[in-house]
Structure formats: C-alpha cells, structure tokens
C-alpha cells in the first residue's frame, strides 16, 4: 500500500506540468474538527485591545513591528475596515478576523501535529526536499461577506531562497467554492519564473517591481472539499476573490523551504532569532 502523502509518478507529472496538485482527503474529519475547535478557543482567549497594531499613534511603525514579530509568535490580523474610528470592532472578533499567523505550526500542538505529520514529510520527500523547514503558517478565515480579495501573487516573492525552494501547502477546512472565495491559479505559470520580490529594508516592506497585469481567462478555479490539500509551486501565480457568500471558507496553510544547500535571502520579511527545526534530514 502506498504511503499517505507520497506522490505517484502521475501526480508528480501533473504537478510539474501545472504547478499545483489537489490531494483529496488529505486530512480526516477529526483533524479538521480539531483545528477548527482549537482556533475557536484561541480567538475566545484573545484580547484584541492589547495589540499594538490597533494603536492610532505611530500607526505605520507599530503595524510593521507587529507584522515582523509575527515571524516568531502567534499574531492576529483583522479584515480591512473591521474597526471604527475609535478602534472598536464593528462586529464580533470571530467575524472580523482575517488570519492568524505565522508560527501556529511551532507554537500550537494541534497545528504542529498536522503540519509536521509523517504524511507531510512523505509529500516533501516526493518533491525532493532534503532538509525542509516550515517557514510560516496561517489560519485563514475568508469571512462571509467581508472576506477580502487576495491579488495574484507568487509565494517565492515573499519567501525567497537561493536557489528557490518554496512550496505552499493549502488545506481546506471547509468546502472552497467559487462563490465563497476558492483559490484560482494559472496552470503552468510557474515555468515563467519569478516576476517580483517582496523586500524588507529600514523603511518597511515593498515590492521591487510593479505587479504585471493578468488575463482572468487564464486562471482556473481550484474548488475543493474540506480535507483536500493543494500543493502550490513557489512560482505559481494564484489568487482568490472576495467571499460573496453567507458561509466562511476556513483554511490552514503553511509554506516550506529547503535548508540543504539553500540560502535564506537577507531581504525577506521573516528574520528569525531562533531558526526553525527541519522536519527531517536526508
């Protein structure tokens, strides 16, 4: 019997050709319920009023600092326009949160279990990773009605190694459909290389090039059932639209880079004091 997560030759061929592959039933119902219940608990315990990101004084610096610090802690990011002029949420925090990141895979045992599982290691071995580390993770909510658009991008822009090694793993915790904001991708776009880099310096973070324009007819929707995992090449161009439905679209996503013979770019936004532990070394 094939090991769970290990890609077949046909699956590898599809991935290499298209830049993505959807693996159905990657997570069990119990695993999905465990992650969603754990996130519900984390949100219940979180006091948003204590976070510097919501301060009106020196807002840009505080926002950048909060973002940078999330590289080594669990941080909470809200939807645009979630707050009124006085800094109060317009609706309950459970319906205002955009994502939680960026080290759930390290700091929380529930999310660590799934992201560091044997089936994930088997998948990465299929992709020839020698000493992979999870460099970031996010729980994304895509709230009903207000879940915002994510513009076309490539993951290598944000998580750059030399040579480039980023792979995205995106796990649907709820059904992802066109109406509630599923992922869309341009098949084969990973073959054209990286188009721009997201760079951090003393002034903050910014792209080194403007975004190219894309023809929407080139994108295909990646509708998935809860429990399905999509594997995304780091150069694949992908996006998602606003959630126009009355149902959320929860997902857990994490990104992996290799550390075997690879250099983490000094201009990446993630700058860690404690380096992540490899999932395995081969």
UniProtKB/TrEMBL annotation:
GO terms for molecular function: metal ion binding; phytanoyl-CoA dioxygenase activity. Pfam families: PhyH (PF05721). Its cofactor is Fe cation. The keyword Transmembrane does not apply. Gene3D superfamilies: q2cbj1_9rhob like domain. InterPro entries: Phytyl_CoA_dOase-like (IPR008775). The keyword Kinase does not apply. Keywords: Iron, Metal-binding. SUPFAM superfamilies: Clavaminate synthase-like. This is Phytanoyl-CoA dioxygenase. The lineage of its organism: Eukaryota, Viridiplantae, Streptophyta, Embryophyta, Tracheophyta.
């Amino acid at each position: 019997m094939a090991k769970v997560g290990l890609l077949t030759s046909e699956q590898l061929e599809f991935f290499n050709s298209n830049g993505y592959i959807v693996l159905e039933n990657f997570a069990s119902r119990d695993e999905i319920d465990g992650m969603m219940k754990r996130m519900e608990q984390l949100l219940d315990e979180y006091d948003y009023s204590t976070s510097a990101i919501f301060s009106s004084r020196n807002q840009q610096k505080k926002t950048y600092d909060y973002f940078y610090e999330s590289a080594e802690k669990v941080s909470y990011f809200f939807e645009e326009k979630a707050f009124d002029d006085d800094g109060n949420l317009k609706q309950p925090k459970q319906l205002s949160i955009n994502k939680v990141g960026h080290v759930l895979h390290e700091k929380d045992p529930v999310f660590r279990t799934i992201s560091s599982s044997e089936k994930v290691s088997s998948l990465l071995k299929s992709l020839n990773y020698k000493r992979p580390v999870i460099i970031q993770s996010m729980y994304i909510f895509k709230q009903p009605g207000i879940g915002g658009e994510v513009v076309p991008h490539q993951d290598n822009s944000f998580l750059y190694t030399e040579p480039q090694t980023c792979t995205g793993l995106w796990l649907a915790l709820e059904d992802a459909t066109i109406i509630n904001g599923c992922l869309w991708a341009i098949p084969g776009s990973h073959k054209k290389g990286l188009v721009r880099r997201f760079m951090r310096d003393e002034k903050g973070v910014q792209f080194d090039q403007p975004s190219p324009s894309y023809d929407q007819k080139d994108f295909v929707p990646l509708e998935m059932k809860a429990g399905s995992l999509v594997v995304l090449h780091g150069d694949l161009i992908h996006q998602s639209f606003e959630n126009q439905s009355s149902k959320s679209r929860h997902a857990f996503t994490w990104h992996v880079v290799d550390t075997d013979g690879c250099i983490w770019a000094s201009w990446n936004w993630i700058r860690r004091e404690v380096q992540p532990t490899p999932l395995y070394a081969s």
